[in-house]
Amino acid sequence: MANAVRCYETGGPEVMRWEAVEVGEPGPGQVRVRHEAVGLNFADTYFRSGLYPVELPAGMGVAAAGVVEAVGPGVTHVREGDRVTYTGSPLGAYSTERVMPAAPLIALPDAIAFDTAAAMTMRGLTAAYLLRRIHPLKPGDTVLLHAAAGGVGLIFTQWAKLLGITVIGTVSTEEKAEVARAHGCDHVVVYPREDVAGRVRELTGGAGVPVVFDSIGRSTFSASLDSLARRGLLVCFGTASGLVPPIDAMQLAVKGSLFVTRPALADYIADPAERAELAGELFDHVGSGRIKIGINQRYALADAVRAHRDLEAGGSIGSSVFSL
């Protein structure tokens, strides 16, 4: 008998239930995967809380790594026994095994452990599209990255250094500042006690940065706009503090003809060829040791309630996983 985390209503962490579930055989285009490790991502809290609409009852989780145990008719890109990782819909990664569509599965190189894959697949592909698809960044550019000590932030910073990009990172504590610096962040701003936009202007000779990468949302939106250079781009890719306020188009003009985008990972990995290209680059960096994935929080799947509480409290550093 398999086990899974299920939600019958949206709300706080307490709505999640650990249950025994039946897992059948895969149908056309499906596989059955036995999970070895499951990713814990902040986006999971959006589905649980109802910020992202979900049909109830629902499973939880969008990322995991494991072994293909059975393959349904029509599946050709993976076989029984393959090591795989994935991120994306449908929900249900918080489980010991599941039947799911085969399409999202990505072959996992032997050089990358299951827990590393679960910790990095969603975060690493996010860093990949932010750095390689959103804006034509070049060596010598300086960017502002919020939550620099988070799971995406630590991967992003290491990758940015490989590309010759200078990173100004924001963090909430001195402990996180030390972690960000250790992973290559060039300048760290502790935002509870420093003026982020003022510090960015100081570090850039008053010019501001061409791109701000903001996964925080409401509480950082104003400072992000004020940190941009003329015709700069604000990339809002998360809402940890809440949704960004309505955008006043005239404000964008007054502040320097700015641009704002709200990208979603799903739209950058929907095409199998593009997903393979981004994943291949990510796996190459991680497999060679050029990018290191630090797993700083580990939980049992049955402790999903505690894991979500810890995540939303803001104390997590780097990546978190559920170990099976």
Automatic annotation (TrEMBL):
Protein name as annotated: Enoyl reductase (ER) domain-containing protein
Gene source species: Kutzneria albida DSM 43870
GO molecular function, one term: mRNA 3'-UTR AU-rich region binding
Taxonomic lineage of the native organism: Bacteria, Bacillati, Actinomycetota, Actinomycetes, Pseudonocardiales
InterPro entries: ADH-like_C, ADH-like_N, ER, GroES-like_sf, NAD(P)-bd_dom_sf, QOR-like, Quin_OxRdtase/zeta-crystal_CS
Positions of the Enoyl reductase (ER) domain: 11-322
Cellular component terms (Gene Ontology): cytosol
Protein keywords: NADP, Oxidoreductase
Domain of life where this protein originates: Bacteria
One Pfam short name: ADH_N
